[in-house]
Design a protein that fits this description.
Layout: H1 5-11, H2 18-28, E1 33-36, H3 43-58, E2 70-73, H4 80-88, E3 101-104, H5 110-118, E4 123-126, H6 128-134, H7 140-143, E5 149-152, H8 155-158, H9 162-177, E6 182-187, H10 193-205, E7 210-213, E8 220-224, H11 244-251, E9 257-260, H12 264-277, E10 285-288, H13 294-305, E11 311-314, E12 329-333, H14 339-346, E13 357-362, H15 367-381, H16 394-406, H17 412-419, H18 430-442, E14 456-458, E15 465-467, H19 470-478, E16 488-493, E17 498-503, H20 504-508, E18 515-518, E19 521-529, E20 532-536, E21 544-545, H21 558-567, H22 576-580, H23 582-591, E22 599-607, E23 610-616, H24 621-637, E24 644-647, E25 652-656, H25 664-670, H26 676-684, H27 686-700, H28 715-732, H29 737-750, H30 753-765, E26 767-772, H31 781-790, H32 798-813, E27 820-823
Parallel strand pairs: 1-6, 1-7, 2-4, 2-5, 3-4, 5-6, 8-13, 9-11, 9-12, 10-11, 12-13, 16-20, 18-21, 22-26
Antiparallel strand pairs: 14-15, 16-17, 18-19, 19-20, 22-23, 23-25, 24-25, 26-27
């Protein structure tokens, strides 16, 4: 006798949480919505219970696998197999053993794809890219005719990205075919829940959608490994792997540990550092990041699931979804830079209801101690960042139009109404829509003479628009997606075994015989042929390099930046991190000032390098990149001079051979907000930055092709193509909307324009604290160190200059000093 869903829960000694029951009730009523609950309290079962209840109450009379019922979208193809296994577990007890569960991702074999071509499984787990690929086939509407439910997992990872826009467009098409389709999203860490629901369901359906929050108590503990020695002049990466012995000792206290880093390069470095600190861990240590081969990653995931590994050093590739219940603790190397990211990673431990999730911070420089203390406060108050959705990503839209042309074809007016049912394009104008239609039919004004850009043509009989040829359809299918990267080179042993991939720029600088470390192995380059680098284990050790990838560093989020600023001013702190930092903060107060949230601190000083001004808005490195360029531009506009800049998450440095002003009026002028955009465009060379951003846009829009049938092209050729196209458009098609999109994306994504405007407006109204210090301060030293580390004009080694400066500052710390401080009242923004 099949069990009911409730009795199945009882047989496992579970009791549904209120939010799970609430979700099932909403599903019975035919509603759609967003489920928001902490990691590890059963979101998957909350969403999956709805379709299970629907199926068991219908009591299907046949025992053959029914046609597709549920579509489960996951952001990572690596999660598909684990998700499918989790969804399959309750089927037999509930009398649904005749249901089939399958996955369709970029990793799915051709054999399985061929079987799915005849009939999709009852439950299909797929990615946004593979779902979009399905839409390119004319018979997909018929194959999905029985679909009842779509569940979008980890929605917070998709919203705010072009993959999220791609998902919105695919959902709009499915709702056109199936108006009563129920859509549910799952999210663990997002602040703007109502907006996230609106984006998921679209303007037409959002009003009737619900947000269901799982408020079960999920305790998250945030603790920090305190360095045994604390320098008063910290700089980025200084502590770094010097804490490897402490980390190795911490690993030994638990059965299974995930050690998260923020970059793939850090993963490789920390794997080696832990081995060097504790060689006995070698058989129990593993590595996981996105550039390793699928086989290696799957082996590591299997070892985690079976408890056959003590520690995995990893990146965000293990942030999401997979239930590794054996994980006892999580270590985070370096500041997570965001509350949501820290909570997501903490949730990898204690990934079950009632269990405590514990994350241990490993600071890589002294001020990260304060960031971990501030992050703990934000976790307690549940101060989670918003995820801003994208709008009018026209490169994604033109790709989608070609997708529909490959499938059923389209009639322009009807397709426009469909597209407007997405949040991303609800405000699209008729002019923008007509431009997109012209772009897919002939590439726009500048490219209309080239047949390859005439992708869509009108059928004279049906009056519908379709893909122009089977060849163009094949090329389009091979290039669907919005994820763009630099050229990847495959690393292989001479016997052909694949280890993973690195970016072309790294390998291209090497010559045979050079050694490097990858996938935790010491390797020697034997030969570099086309897109493969053949390697072997070295016979003798030489100097080794660690691959670096072009992924951007995480900026400090607004929420965490504000918390750090408040944390710096705590009196009689009880946090162990702040107690360990007191000698640094005391020296900062002695030589300068610790700014409150309503103050803007500007320090000036003079060293043998020249004159320096250090400004501290506490707004994150991307904002400070733009502000530093803006300040340098405005300070040198009337009095021409060369100003170098550096920036961190706390502030930025201006460095020149001439003295900086001590006059408040001059700084107030620099803080003007009325000419921000034109000044920023002038000083940042936004046109050149937009040229680089255009490479990504042109690939998504199909102007240049990554994947052709036959031999692959190198990215060098692709870059030449995008640069040429950019120049052609600027000269012959200046109103091309992709050019405007490139500039818009640079301003918002690289410089965080919205946040930059807010920061400048706030700074313009704050009290100014102008300090002349006789020395570099603990806050300014990291900025000075970062700049000299990137200078190429000095022949003096970075570490030598650093050591000399630290020695001078330590000597000065024992001397009586009094900074010159000028305070001004707050002023209205100009």
């Amino acid at each position: 006798m099949p069990e009911t869903l409730e009795s199945w829960f009882s047989s496992r000694h579970w009791k549904p949480f209120p939010y799970q029951s609430q979700t099932w009730d909403a599903f019975r009523k035919g509603q759609s919505g967003l489920i928001h609950a902490p990691t590890g309290v059963g979101k998957t079962l909350a969403a999956w219970g709805g379709p299970l209840l629907h199926a068991t109450t219908k009591n299907p009379p046949h025992k053959t696998s029914p046609r597709i019922h549920t579509l489960w979208i996951t952001p990572l193809r690596a999660l598909a197999a684990d998700t499918a296994a989790a969804l399959e577990e309750p089927l037999a007890p509930l009398g649904l053993s005749h249901w089939s569960v399958g996955s369709r991702t970029g990793d799915t074999s051709q054999k399985i794809r061929a079987l799915q071509k005849n009939q999709l499984p009852t439950v299909l787990v797929t990615t946004p890219e593979s779902l979009t690929l399905l839409l390119t086939y004319p018979d997909t509407a018929e194959k999905l005719a029985t679909l009842k439910t779509i569940i979008v997992d980890e929605w917070h990872e998709l919203i705010g990205t072009k993959r999220g826009v791609q998902t919105e467009l695919a959902l709009a098409r499915l709702r056109l075919w199936l108006p009563h389709l129920q859509t549910w999203g799952l999210s663990a860490t997002i602040g703007n829940l109502d907006e996230a629901k609106h984006v998921l369901l679209g303007p037409k359906n959002a009003r009737d959608g619900v947000v269901i929050q799982g408020k079960q108590p999920k305790k998250i503990e945030v603790v920090t490994l305190i360095p045994k020695e604390m320098d008063r002049f910290p700089w980025s990466g200084h502590l770094g792997t010097t804490m490897a012995k402490q980390v190795a000792s911490q690993i030994e206290t638990a059965n299974t540990t995930l050690l998260f880093t923020n970059t793939r390069s850090q993963t490789e470095i920390w794997f080696q550092s832990i081995l060097n600190a504790k060689p006995s861990l070698e058989p129990h240590l593993a590595m996981h990041h996105g550039s390793l081969s699928k086989k290696i990653r799957r082996e590591v995931e299997h070892r985690l699931a079976t408890g056959n590994v003590k520690c995995v050093v990893c990146t965000s590739s293990l942030d999401l979804g997979v239930d590794f219940s054996p994980v006892d603790q999580v270590l985070q190397v370096g500041s997570p830079k965001g509350i949501a990211r820290l909570m997501q990673r903490a949730g990898r431990s204690g990934h079950q209801p009632g269990a405590v999730s514990r994350v241990i911070g490993v600071p890589t420089h002294a001020f990260e101690l304060i960031e971990f203390a501030a992050a703990r406060d934000c976790v307690k108050t549940n101060s989670i960042e918003d995820r801003a959705p994208l709008e009018l990503s026209l490169d994604v839209l033109v790709q989608h139009i070609v997708t529909i042309a490959c499938g059923t074809g389209y009639e322009p007016d009807a397709l426009l109404e469909e597209v407007k049912q997405t949040h991303a394009f609800k405000t699209i104008s008729d002019e923008e829509w007509q431009w997109c239609l012209k772009f897919v039919t002939h590439g726009g004004d500048a490219l209309k003479a080239y047949p390859d850009y005439q992708k869509v043509t009108r059928d004279p009989d049906t009056k519908r628009w379709h893909i122009a040829s089977p060849r163009l359809a094949q090329i389009h299918r091979m290039n669907i997606g919005t994820i763009t990267t630099d050229q990847n080179i495959t690393i292989r042993f001479l016997n052909g075994k694949k280890l993973g991939t690195v970016e072309e720029w790294f390998v291209s600088r090497m010559k045979p015989g050079d050694q490097f470390v990858f996938a935790g192995k010491k390797l020697e380059l034997v030969k570099f042929h086309e897109l493969d680098a053949h390697v072997r284990k070295p016979s003798k050790n030489k100097g080794r390099q660690i691959p670096q990838w072009m992924g951007a560093k995480f900026p400090l989020s607004t929420e965490l930046a504000v918390a750090v600023n408040h944390k710096l001013l705590e009196q009689n702190p009880t946090d162990p991190e702040l107690r360990a930092s007191q000698n640094i903060l005391a020296l900062q107060k002695k030589w300068s000032h610790l700014p409150s949230p309503d103050e803007l601190l500007i320090e000036t000083t003079h060293t043998r390098d020249g004159f320096h001004a250090f400004v501290y808005p506490f707004a994150g490195r991307l904002v400070h990149e733009g502000l530093s360029a803006l300040f340098a531009f405005r300070l040198s506009r009337d009095t021409p001079r060369t100003i170098q800049t550096s920036f961190t998450d706390y502030g930025f440095e201006l460095h020149a051979r001439e003295e900086f002003p001590a006059d408040e009026e001059i700084w107030r002028e620099v803080l003007r907000t009325d000419t921000l955009l034109p000044d920023l465009i002038d000083c940042m060379n936004v046109a050149e930055l937009a040229r680089r951003q255009f490479r990504e846009i042109s690939r998504v829009a199909g102007l240049v092709i990554d994947n052709f049938p036959g031999p692959k092209r190198t990215k060098r050729n692709l870059q030449a193509s995008t640069s040429l196209l950019y120049n052609v458009f600027c000269q012959y098609d200046p109103n091309n909307l992709l050019l405007a999109q490139a500039q818009r994306e640079i301003l918002e994504r690289q410089l965080e324009m919205t946040r930059l405007q807010t920061t400048l407006k706030k700074a313009a109204s704050q009290s100014l604290v102008l300090v002349y210090s006789q020395n570099l301060t603990p806050l300014s030293f990291p900025l000075w160190a970062q700049r000299i580390n990137t200078e190429s004009v000095s022949t003096e080694k970075f570490t030598t200059r650093l050591t000399k400066m630290i020695a001078d500052l330590e000597n000065a710390a024992s001397l009586p000093q009094k900074p010159e401080i000028t305070r001004s009242p707050s002023a209205p923004a100009v």
